[in-house]
Specification:
Layout (H helix, E strand, L loop, with lengths): L16 E6 L9 H8 L3 E4 L1 H4 L9 E4 L4 H10 L6 E6 L7 H9 L4 E4 L4 H9 L7 E4 L17 E5 L5 H11 L6 E6 L7 E6 H7 L8 E6 L25 H11 L6 E5 L5 H8 L5 E6 L2 H13 L6 E4 L14 E4 L8 H8 L5 E6 L2 H14 L2 E5 L2 E6 L2 E6 L3 E7 L3
Parallel strand pairs: 1-4, 1-5, 2-3, 2-4, 6-7, 11-12, 11-14, 12-13, 14-15
Antiparallel strand pairs: 7-10, 8-9, 8-10, 15-19, 16-19, 17-18
Helix pairs in contact: 6-7
């Protein structure tokens, strides 16, 4: 019998697949109960390295993970003929591992997880770091610039590395960001007889070009460098821009209304330098954002800003609203920083908002002000004018220099 995903039930209607975590100590490190599950599987799945750790079992079919995984998994499980299916994974399969993907694809009721001690737990034990005092960042299959979001002096980060080149890549990123004196410890083959430890700094790694990095390793970073806030309102100098930038004070005011939250999605329409979408993403790793920008050179600049500020996951859509909004996942919040006076832009954004979603629109021209006044009259919300003045030399004295006043319309969709 198959479920709605086209995947057959497991034996006796139980889990369709059992995922067994295996450590660097391999087959010998598995308790007999888990060895029995592996030997009893009619089909054993895993990466080539994991499958190579297990002694041959007569009659057992072994398969490496299909590519692409999500599309190929139902057919692979469907070919099991009802036999028990087991899979091997590194350490804790639910820690940035295959277990997470399998649960997303098959559902939690279809997947039985048998974790081993994770490399993260072993790394914390070796470093003497508590779970509460350290963050985990995985670079496996991800842009290494993701690490830059975690930068903060005194912060401790454990990095799950994709390959032997990762320490050099991380060291270069840290040095370029002013964090070259950060402590960097390479913990190799954790839990195995060949376990190793190499300590240096990011700058030291770049100078010494240390050889012999184990294939399986975790990086422990004790960060030392300039303070970088995760709160909205980064200095304007943090961004590469051509003048089309939502300035610091106005950006912070907009993001306070947009109210980022874990898992929430933002559209940054007329993104310019991408600052609002970037700072939305920096508030929490689970936030999502799309930056919509019509000019190609600005779109490229947004991508560079996003990578440099540690949020390479920002989706950049090249095109003009409202046409460019078609097909994007529905947003929880929308910021329109440019092009609000274009035909249909505000209506498209209002129509796309989820219930409870927030819309913030900024305008500096008379044409946009008229559009916002009409929207306020029709839909309600809050209409405000934001003015910022900064002290600057005035001859031999000091005076106030006003920035261009911005009209802000804020609206929350109730249903």
């Amino acid at each position: 019998m198959e479920d709605a995903r086209g995947v057959p039930d497991g034996p006796g209607g139980g889990p369709r697949i059992t995922v067994i975590g295996i450590g660097a100590d391999g087959w010998e490190g598995l308790p007999e109960r888990l060895r029995s599950l592996v030997r009893g599987a009619g089909v054993l799945l895993g990466g080539a390295r994991h499958l190579g750790l297990v002694p041959p079992v007569p009659g057992q079919r072994r398969e490496t993970w299909p590519s692409p995984l999500r599309e190929g998994l139902p057919a692979l499980l469907g070919s099991s003929g009802g036999a028990p299916v087991a899979a091997l994974a590194s350490g804790d399969p639910m820690l940035s591992g295959i277990g997470t993907t399998l649960v997303e694809v098959l559902g939690a009721e279809a997947v039985r997880i048998e974790p081993a001690v994770s490399s993260v737990a072993l790394a914390r034990a070796r470093m003497g770091w508590s779970a509460e005092s350290s963050e985990v960042v995985t670079l496996v299959g991800r842009d290494p610039h993701l690490l830059l979001r975690a930068l903060a002096p005194g912060h401790r980060v454990l990095v799950l590395s994709p390959d032997r080149a990762a320490p050099g890549v991380v060291a270069r990123l840290l040095a370029d960001a002013g964090y070259g004196e950060s402590g960097m410890t390479v913990l190799g083959d954790l839990g195995a007889d060949t376990e190793s430890r190499a300590e240096t700094t990011a700058n030291g790694w770049l100078r010494e070009r240390a050889p012999g990095v184990p294939a399986l390793h975790v990086l422990a970073l004790d960060l030392r460098g300039p303070g970088v806030s995760w709160a909205p309102g980064l200095p304007d100098e943090a961004y590469e821009h051509d003048g089309q930038l939502t300035r610091r004070d106005l950006r912070a005011a907009a993001l306070a209304r947009l109210a980022p939250a874990p898992g929430a999605r933002l559209w940054d329409v007329g993104a310019g330098a991408g600052s609002v979408g970037i700072e939305w993403l920096r508030t929490h790793p689970l936030c999502r954002a799309s930056a919509i920008e019509s000019r190609r050179e600005r779109a490229a600049r947004i991508r560079r800003n996003a990578r440099r500020l540690g949020v390479p996951s920002l989706t950049v859509v090249e095109g003009t609203a409202p046409k460019a909004l078609a097909g994007l996942p529905a947003p929880d919040a929308v910021f329109v920083g440019g092009g609000a006076s274009g035909p249909g832009v505000i209506d498209a954004c209002l129509g796309a908002l989820r219930p409870g979603g927030r819309l913030v629109v900024h305008g500096v021209t008379l044409e946009t002000e008229r559009v916002l006044a009409d929207a306020y009259r029709l839909h309600g919300g809050e209409l405000s004018r934001l003015a910022v003045e900064s002290a600057a030399p005035l001859g031999t004295f000091t005076g106030w220099t006003p920035a261009r006043t911005v009209t802000q319309w804020f609206f929350t969709r109730r249903s």
